[in-house]
Amino acid sequence: MLQNKQKCKVPGCSNDARTRMMCPKHYRRFLLYGDPEIQVKATKGTKSICKVDGCSSSVQSHELCSKHYRRFQKYGTTDASALKKGASGSLQNLQCKHEGCTRPPESAKHMLCSKHYQRFKIHGTTSNKVLVNLRSLSIKERLMRGIIKDKETSCWEWQKGLF
Asked: Does 69 map to a domain?
């Protein structure tokens, strides 16, 4: 059976799409940074020192060593004194950015609790609408959930898997 391969939806990319209409490179950027078009600056062959005062470790990412980078991703700060339980600046004083959720965020990077972060990773949104029980929908409604109408060509593009 001949399959019609679709191209990545990111403008200027001619790679074959695999997941969520993106090639593996752009899908990975979407998962890591929330934006498939972000340009990641690679610094090969240069050794830099962590920008945190008093740290002499080599840089892993974003001008931070691995310890400070992980701390910044999780808590939104590299300052260890702010991480004490209940201190201002720790995640325990913050709330998930999903409307109505009072749980603390899992990391400062996305500011989402684990439940809403997992939903965002799977569905691309934190909305409760993705939790609609598919069995309660008609067959037409279920099929229409897998279709996106292209505004330029007016074609209906199937977004779900093939048999």
From this structure: yes
CB 106 within 8 A of CB 112: yes
pLDDT for 37-78, tens place per residue?
877 665 555 568 888 888 888 888 778 888 888 887 777 777
| Whole-number Å distance between alpha carbons of 115 and 103 | 9
State whether the Cα torsion 27-140-151-128 is positive or negative: negative
The verdict on residue 67 lying in a domain is: yes
Q: Which two tokens stand for residue 55?
A: 């740290």
Cα–Cα distance for residue pair 50/59, rounded to 1 Å:
5
As given in the structure block, the two tokens for residue 93 are 């004083």
Q: Which residue has the tokens 């240069």?
A: 46
Q: Round to whole Å and give the CA distance between 31 and 73.
A: 14
Predicted local distance difference test score (pLDDT) of residue 1: 44
pTM: 0.34
| Amino acid found at 20 | R
Shared domain check, 1 and 31: yes
Q: Both ends of the chain: CA-CA distance in Å?
A: 11
Q: Backbone phi, then psi, for 70, in 5-degree steps?
A: -60, -40
User: Where are the alpha helices (H) located in 34-110, listed in sequence order?
Assistant: 66-75
CA 121/CA 107 separation, integer angstroms: 14
